[in-house]
Amino acid sequence: MPSTTGDNLKSVRQLIDEQPNVDNTAVYEQLCAIQDELWGRLRARFSLVPDASTQRFQPYTSPDGSASGTLAAWSGPEVDWAVYGRVGNPAKSFCNLNINVWLGPQTRVPHLMFQFGTFPAPFFYMDYFPRVHFLTSPGYMDHYFDPVNAQYLELMKEDRLEPFISQSTYVRALMSPVALCFIARPGATGIIELIRANAAQYFDRWLAWVDDAEPVRRQDYADLMHRDLELRRHAAERDPANVVPERIYGTEVASAVVRALWGGQRVLPRPGA
Question: The whole model's pTM is what?
Answer without folding.
Answer: 0.95
